[in-house]
Write a structure and sequence with these properties.
279 residues; 2 domains
Length: 279
Amino acid sequence: MPISTMCPNVQNFETRLEKIYVMKWLLDLEDKDIEITEPNLHKMLDLKLDRNFAGLIPLISYLQKIPKFILEDFFDIISQKDNYNSYNELYNNFKYKLINKTNYKNFNYFIEKQICRGVIFDNKYTSIENLEAANTAIFEQERLLNILIFNIVSELCNDIIKFECERNIVIKFHLLDYWSKINKFKPIEKLNDDECKVISSLFAGFDNESILEFLNLPPNDVNYNYLDKILISLPGKFHVNNLTQVIFRILLLKPKVWQKSTVENMLYEIKNLHQIICD
């Protein structure tokens, strides 16, 4: 019997070390012999993410396109989340099929192609001389998507469920699907006008100064503190743990909310999200 099975404290410690390693991998620091605390790694991930929550929009689109036969695999994998051997056998079998079975390979290739298309839309990447720049941009987009996924599902990770340090985001889709089923229809508290404006600003990737401008507030210490309080309180209003999960829940409920024709329409949709849960 593994030590982690006998001793919950060791298990928790091992899980924390695993998450620290994952965060270092996301930041390209896993091979560097440097001491960084877990809170500082989270701060560094936030800086790397740079409020690019719009990256969740294509992620939601990818999830909507998962074929039924793959979703059935996900159900089987997660059904064994409390059984180490069975979970890993099913998970490894899924990874094998992504590489070796035509219908699985096609879906995997489709997602890879979508990521590339999402990056290489600018003329600066179309010439042969800029292929290296294009590859770098694709790599950074994959890193961003992995950070977003980690921010969403990390609370699920334990001694059985792992966040694998591999660029391929499809191998984490079973975790996203599982998290979505647990959290999609959790309660949402009523939101005031300023909270709705802050959320729409997060979709746009605004920095704090731009958000205050959108709120028609001057950039002073009092208003920055007011904004911080809103940002800190939003996860609680959505019954989740961080801002990535807030935006992800909104997109799960209203995938097209970011396409609303006017800011007013978007704010209306955000403000009335709680009604979807109540109805």
